[in-house]
């Protein structure tokens, strides 16, 4: 592989490549862990429903067949593909734009704040794209029997009964933590555990660092965002009330759950999000390397680093 990319850094094609990489990183990985996500969501709503993940799969398969274990895979694939496009593509755009705005020296000196600002901006766009499919996914997964058998059936049901508001009952803000902690973790890994500058390592070694940095970032994401994730599951599982009746508020749900309830299912989610995030960064950076771009994150201040060939 050539050491120079045919895609100029920070060009339209560069940002397009990052967007495609984000789709490939998020859509398939989230779809793959649908069985784990299904048990996680159901236990967040009904903690005593299953004794554990394997008991959940056994119980679901017995009642609904093997297909039941993949309940919600349709909206998961669509929603997280859209989210991946938004958060990876726009993260790179905002990171570049904000760097130009404050200047190269200030951008490097205050890079953690830059990462947080860029990821927060990208998250707003990505989560707006994700939220409708996430709401449908949660509704399908936390209802027994499932709220709908297909994505289109579920979408039509929510639109007919609740309108567009039914698709926006909660956003889980963890992209800020995901990107900022990833960038910082990769920087620490190269400075602390590696003996040479990043660009002196070959692409396989750099991708190994991407996976490790992603897994660690995923653990932070899971912990920080877990209460909000539990809350989203509960809000999307509430029964629709008739006109004039009292609608349960977010604060009432929080009060009912209590501090302990907000952390229900943290263990499975740490495993799920850690694995997901590690795989996402691995896939994303593998795609970037394949098209001739450098891997994400660096301890070096210059953005023009090159990837060594094996």
TrEMBL record:
GO terms for molecular function: phosphate transmembrane transporter activity. GO terms for cellular component: mitochondrial inner membrane. It is found in: Mitochondrion inner membrane. Its main location: mitochondrion. It is a multi-pass membrane protein. Solcar repeats lie at residues 13-97, 110-196, 205-290. Belongs to the mitochondrial carrier (TC 2.A.29) family. This is Mitochondrial phosphate carrier protein. It comes from Thamnidium elegans.
